[in-house]
Amino acid sequence: MPTKRPEERYDIDPVDGSRREIVGGWAQEKHLRLRHYVDISRAARRKFGRNSTFTDLYCGPGRAAVKDTGEVIPGSAIAACAEAARHASFGAIHIADLDAVNVSACRDRLNGEGLGPISTYIGKAEETARQVVSKLSPSGLHFAFLDPYSVQALPFEVIQTLAELPKMDLLIHFSAMDMQRNVKQLMSNGKLDVFAPGWRDHVDPAVRNDVAVLAVFRHWCGLIKKLGYQDVSDNVELVSGSKNQPLYWLVLASKSALGQAFWGKVSNVTAQHRFDF
Ligand SMILES: C[S@@+](CC[C@H](N)C(=O)[O-])C[C@H]1O[C@@H](n2cnc3c(N)ncnc32)[C@H](O)[C@@H]1O
What we know:
By secondary structure, the protein is α/β, with parallel strands linked by helices. The protein is 41% helix and 21% strand. Strand 10 (236-240) and strand 11 form a beta hairpin. The longest helix has 18 residues, at 209-226. S-adenosylmethionine binds at residues 57-60, 64, 75-76, 97-99, 102, 124-125, 147-149, 153. S-adenosylmethionine (SAM) binds next to loops.
């Protein structure tokens, strides 16, 4: 994927003078589903009180401007935590990003909304996942949002580490366009081994890109299941663009049947949008 330069990816918010991300309109749909999931799981969260947490390992700066409309929207951490605060706040919020400027902007914006308590981390997700998990109670109810730009920033190790907690639900977003375009390159440069270890036993590198992507994805879902999650292939939503092009996948991984049922209610799954295994 051609890497965007920082000046294409961010601008400065005139209201608070901090960085904000420039996003496509689809980001709003992503946050809508994130907020719905937080909303619908409120009763479970209430039972755990302070022992319920939210983790955002790719938090971004906490505010975004929609490219085509100029609309200003909260980033994922603010969207999720503000939604939770309406009924049952998270007992602790953990935000992390590779980019230190994003982490501090996101922290300030959470603080500005009175959302907390917040712990911050800077670094690659595989490192920050380990740091966050070391602070979480094994008896707590946890929810993590994983929102990298590309699968290259989502080593399977991140999911493995988070999955050490018995009650850790994951909502994972990644770009189907990126995967579709780059799958062959990822196969040849070894980066697919990091995202989906063992893919070579399940995917024929000679097949068409779209077929290869499906096979990699099926294998990746199987890896998640082996960590004790329900079958995530039931919880995959493929969101398509206006020309029916695949834009992104949202995957909910939960070890409980309840989390799975919640996702069924919020994911707007339709025949066209189901990931067709
Ligand atoms: C799609 S943006 C996040 C947007 C944010 N979740 C939201 O919805 O408001 C992806 C973020 O991942 C960060 N990032 C890139 N590579 C990373 C890595 N290896 N580990 C952690 N964060 C990374 C980028 O700095 C960027 O802020």
